[in-house]
Design brief:
Elements (H helix, E strand, L loop, with lengths): L3 E4 L5 H8 L9 E4 L5 H10 L2 E3 L10 H4 L7 E3 L10 H6 L4 E2 L6 H16 L2 H9 L17 E5 L3 H10 L6 E5 L6 H7 L2 E2 L2 H7 L2 E4 L13 H6 L5 E4 L8 H9 L5 E4 L12 H5 L4 E3 L8 H19 L11 H11 L1
Parallel strand pairs: 1-2, 1-3, 3-4, 4-5, 6-7, 6-9, 7-8, 9-10, 10-11, 11-12
Length: 338
């Protein structure tokens, strides 16, 4: 029986197959679309699937109930960097690799971060609103330049480093970074960033952008205490994970004028519910976007191509790349108890 690829992504099955077939010398395989299936139907589809293409809209969670019959499944490939809708622990227990597409949207997120910082400094939202309402506020907006400012990066992985490199032409006074792993002096010079303890970074920076993963250690890492540390003239940008920020605390800081503004692309609940406190704090000093920092035509192409190529590897009997769970360790642990 030929292998089955179950696609949960909102893409035509024919397109998914064509993308996978860009890799040469594949065995014959079938692509089945899971769109519109009930959970019971999905469970049955998982029982026949050799590989699963995840849903990049995060609307189809992959939970333990779908994995109960997944006896031939060799890979769950998520076509995005984030994979929070997948029960990775349940996959690990069943020795099912879960892979994502790291780095595919790095440029898009980095450019969005800079766009947010420049827009906040230049007061573009207020300028646009004033023009639409018939005001000519040429001398009252008081926009600022990025040159000479201190930009703080919380998290210095691929995206944090990409932002740091893109800041160079703007001649900031300093680029600070905080990460649990400090770079070598040579690497810091390469990326033009200086290590700073977290609270020092929060108090010294004119712009703070978040690029950290969501873990128990980073959940709500920005709350009242951290926002109080920031300069009244400073801005906060969150393009990482919504749960890094206490949204109630940020709304209070904005309404009370304790920081100059913020740009938020990610939220604790998505799509954004009407009761989110940031909507009540929304003004010209708050830029909200619907989780689009990593979205671009170019990034989408890279993501889906990486995902399809990784599925092709598994269909050819090769080990998948970009695996986020340690299925080998789980296998060893289970063998030790047999």
């Amino acid at each position: 029986m030929k292998p089955v690829v179950l696609s949960l992504a909102p893409l035509p099955a024919d397109l998914v197959k064509a993308l996978i077939m860009q890799t040469p010398d594949l065995p014959d395989f079938e692509v089945v679309s899971g769109g519109g299936m009930s959970r019971e139907e999905l469970s049955e589809a998982f029982s026949r699937a050799h590989a699963v293409m995840g849903d990049y809209t995060f609307q189809c969670p992959i939970s333990s109930d779908l994995l109960e019959k997944a006896l031939v499944l060799k890979l769950i490939q998520q076509p995005s960097v984030g994979y929070q809708h997948i029960d990775v622990d349940a996959c690990t227990r069943r020795r099912i690799p879960v892979a994502n597409t790291p780095g595919a949207n790095t440029a898009s997120v980095a450019e969005h971060t800079l766009a947010c910082g420049l827009s906040l400094l230049r007061k573009l939202s207020a300028a646009n609103q004033g023009m639409r309402e018939g005001r000519w506020e040429q001398l009252s907006l008081n926009p600022s330049e990025l040159a000479g400012k201190i930009w703080g990066l919380v998290g210095f992985g691929r995206i944090g480093r990409a932002v740091s490199l893109r800041l160079r032409p703007f001649a900031p006074a300093r680029v600070l970074y905080f990460d649990i792993v400090r770079l070598s002096a040579e690497e810091e010079a390469e990326f033009g960033a200086v290590y700073s303890p977290f609270h020092d970074l929060m108090s010294q920076s004119d712009i703070v952008s978040l690029h950290a993963p969501l873990t128990e250690a980073t959940r709500y890492m920005i709350g009242d205490e951290e926002l109080i540390l920031m300069k009244p003239s400073a801005y906060l940008i969150n393009v990482a994970r919504g749960e890094l920020v206490d949204e109630d605390a940020l709304a209070r800081a904005l309404k009370e004028g304790r920081i100059a503004g913020a740009a938020v692309d990610v939220f604790s609940r998505e799509p954004l519910p009407a009761e989110n406190p940031l909507l009540k704090a929304a003004g010209n000093n708050l830029l909200l976007s619907p989780h689009v920092a990593g979205v671009s035509t170019e990034a989408a192409g890279r993501i889906i191509t990486m995902a399809a190529a990784n599925i092709a590897r598994v269909l050819k009997g090769l080990e998948p790349l970009y695996v986020v769970n340690d299925t080998y360790a789980a296998s060893e642990a289970e063998r030790g108890t047999e």
